[in-house]
Amino acid sequence: MFLQLKNIFNYEPLKYQYYDTPEGEDCDKKLLYLVSRGAYVGFAGSLYVALLNKHIKGIPNHLFYIAKWTVPVVGIAAAYGIGTCISTSLRRKDDYWNNAIGAGISASLIGTLGKSFRFGYMSFLLILGGVIMKRKSVEYNYMGGKILCDPSPVGNDRLFFYGNHPSQYDFSFAHKGLEGKKE
Q1: What is the pLDDT of residues 23-34, one digit of tens each?
Q2: What is the DSSP letter of 6?
Q3: Which helix (H) or strand (E) holds 124?
Q4: pLDDT for 81-122, tens place per residue?
Q5: Mean pLDDT (whole number) for 9-34
Q6: Cα–Cα dist 55/142, whole Å
Q7: Which residues are CB-neighbours of 60 under 8 A, at least 6 positions away?
């Protein structure tokens, strides 16, 4: 029996996308979105590694290994969402500084868990770079705003990709400049 992943995101609360509302609004929905995606990524990644690791013996040890990696990923996603939402609420501005504060809070958690300042700093740069790319893709409607982490099934019902299939991209704006900016 083949696991079909396309119906996971048809659950009503998970139809909300992070950029459906401006920063600072619907913080509970944004937090649920980030936590559900963090749980999915953490569980899928740790399950993959746990099943490939020959040194882990027995089902309880596999479950512990999966939980050991899934719970921190969910916490890091929640820290980003909470930090960004609180920053936006206090500053009353919707700009990149809020994302930098959220990235800093989540990267400090990563650095603390990894017991390394360098690891936390590099995580901060990676998270902030990804957030800026995602936010710019939404602002300019680049690739339909689905440049990072927007799951949508394409092609065969059994396949599951992140983002759209490359053949579905519209590159016609490349010669015209960035005319797809939302007002």
Answers
A1: 888 888 889 889
A2: T
A3: helix 117-139
A4: 999 999 999 998 888 899 999 999 999 999 999 899 999 999
A5: 77
A6: 44
A7: none
Write the CB contacts of 102 (distance below 8 Å, at least 6 apart in sequence).
Answer: 79, 80, 81, 82, 83, 84, 87, 131
- Residue 44: both structure tokens together: 């899928």
Say if CB 110 and CB 126 are below 8 A apart.
no
For residue 106, give the nearest of 122, 93, 92 by alpha carbon. Answer: 122
Put simply, whether the predicted model's pTM sits higher than 0.85 gets the answer: no
| Burial of 105 (C-beta count, 10 Å sphere; 0-12/13-18/19+) | buried
Q: Tell me: the pLDDT tens digits for 32-89?
A: 889 988 999 999 999 888 888 888 888 888 899 999 999 999 999 999 999 999 999 9
Which residue type sits at 125? L
Distance CA 89, CA 91 (A): 6
3 state SS of 34: helix
DSSP 162: B
- Residue 4's contacts (CB-CB under 8 Å, 6 or more residues apart) are 157, 158
Q: 114 by DSSP, 3-state: which?
A: helix
